[in-house]
Automatic annotation (TrEMBL):
Protein's name in the database: Guanylate kinase
Domain Guanylate kinase-like stretches: 5-183
SUPFAM superfamilies registered for this protein in UniProt: P-loop containing nucleoside triphosphate hydrolases (SSF52540)
Similarity comment: Belongs to the guanylate kinase family.
Reactions accelerated catalytically: GMP + ATP = GDP + ADP
GO molecular function: ATP binding; GMP kinase activity
Predominant localisation class: cytoplasm
Organism encoding this protein: Massiliimalia timonensis
Top-rank EC class of the record's enzyme: transferase
Amino-acid positions noted as binding ATP in the UniProt annotation, renumbered to this chain: 12-19
Length: 199
């Protein structure tokens, strides 16, 4: 029996370590793939079409929206960003798990339109730890860090709408927790319906 892959939605505030957790998860777990987003912004040096993003014109992107070809989309700083349905669904049909690393607004669109999606919110151990991590990056000034913390507080209020909350105390623990969620979700009764009917 060929089981469909899982559609996984992963969100969390800036500085919670979701990028690091995701990188480790993809390196250690088999059959998990990161969804490639589409955008209308220009490619940056070294970015390849289909690897880093699908680079579309504004007309192409709006055409995809009109055809219901996007799982989620939003406009930031005059550019569209979104997740094309086709490559995601093709992988899931092959039994591969696909992760969408997206912000809270995009996650809500996916959760509402795809009830079978499994949503996971990565939470920092505390706001104090989140602030420490943002400051330790040494990439932003104090005002930017304050804004990111204020945004993080608002985003963390949305965590209750997700299926799971994973606290990123350490990368290894968070990866272990997400891997356990994936294994449990694969074996939920609703996903094993074909096997039950066959017997």
């Amino acid at each position: 029996m060929n089981k469909k892959g899982l559609l996984l939605v992963l969100s969390g505030p800036s500085g919670c370590g979701k990028g690091t957790v995701l990188k480790e998860l993809l390196a250690t777990e088999e059959n998990i793939f990161l969804s490639v987003s589409a955008t209308t912004r220009s490619p940056r040096p070294g970015e390849e079409n289909g690897t880093h993003y699908f680079f579309l014109s504004k007309e192409e992107f709006e055409g995809e929206i009109a055809r219901d070809g996007m799982l989620e989309h939003a406009c930031y700083c005059g550019n569209y960003y979104g997740t094309p349905k086709k490559p995601v669904f093709e992988r899931c049909e092959k039994g591969q798990h696909v992760i969408l690393e997206i912000e809270v607004q995009g996650a809500k669109q996916v959760i509402n339109s795809q009830p079978e999606a499994v949503s996971i919110f990565i939470m920092p151990p505390s706001l104090a730890e989140l602030e420490r991590r943002l400051v330790d990056r040494q990439t932003e000034d104090e005002e930017t860090v304050r804004r990111r913390l204020a945004t993080a507080v608002e985003e963390m209020k949305q965590a209750k709408d997700y299926d799971y909350i994973v606290v990123n105390n350490t990368v290894a623990e968070a990866v272990k927790d997400i891997a356990a969620i994936i294994r449990a979700e694969q074996n939920r009764t609703c996903r094993m319906a074909e096997m039950i009917q066959d017997n």
